[in-house]
Amino acid sequence: MKRIIKHVLDTKGLGLKIAPVIGSKSLLWNVVAFSDSDYAGDPDSRKSVSGFIVYLCGVPICWRSKAQRTVTLSSAEAEWIALSEVAKEVLFIAQILETMGVKVEYPIVIRVDNTAAIFMATNVTTNQRTRHVDIRTKFVTQYTGPDGILKILFVKGTDNESDIMTKNVTGNLHEKHIPKMMTNVDEGTTK
């Protein structure tokens, strides 16, 4: 209970601050996402937890931490499911922005800390090990590639901002990521 009270007191001035973008109507809005997953983190069901954060022009606009619906057979598969979930979300966000007349910068970057998941996203072939996730593979790979609207990039696990959505993290790691997600609303600057 002491930790909760301390956290609330330490972060009472933090919040999300979305400032209007001043410029011409041709300005491109940048969408960037971070995706992560643990592996079989629930000791009872052995389901993994997916987490992601989507930023619009540097401001977090969408985030989620949720148990996956199925038990995965590897950490790569768990990361792959998390990646396909955030891909659906950023495509939806881009569609909403374009409907509102906002020009989105393409390709939309999704950062993932698992090279096997990135490999599955950028290769259209499936093999015996990945056949059971074939539909998710086809969904994401249709939007990646040289002319794709999604670009999947590697990020080190310690720099993956969505890591705090899937695992218990140390105080130092939490303090590292909070300034990227929250603004000191009293001063208008990041803490």
How does this model look, in words?
This protein is an alpha/beta fold and 191 residues long. The protein contains five helices and nine strands. The strands form three sheets. A five-stranded mixed beta sheet has the order 5-4-3-7-8, covered by helices on one side. Strands 1-9 form a two-stranded antiparallel ribbon. A two-stranded parallel sheet has the order 2-6. The longest helix has 25 residues, at 75-99. The model has no long low-confidence stretch (mean pLDDT 83).
Over the alpha carbons, how many angstroms does the gyration radius reach? 18 Å
Q: Order of strands across the biggest sheet?
A: 5-4-3-7-8
Q: Name the helix and strand elements from N-terminus to C-terminus, one letter apiece.
A: HEEEEEHEEHHEHE
The poorly predicted ranges are none
Count of alpha/pi helices: 5
Helix coverage percent: 25-40%
> Which structural class do you get from the secondary structure elements?
alpha/beta
Q: What is the strand content?
A: 15-25%
Judging from the principal axes of the Cα atoms, what is the shape?
A: flat
Distance between the termini: 24 Å
Number of strands: 9
Provide the residue-averaged pLDDT: 83
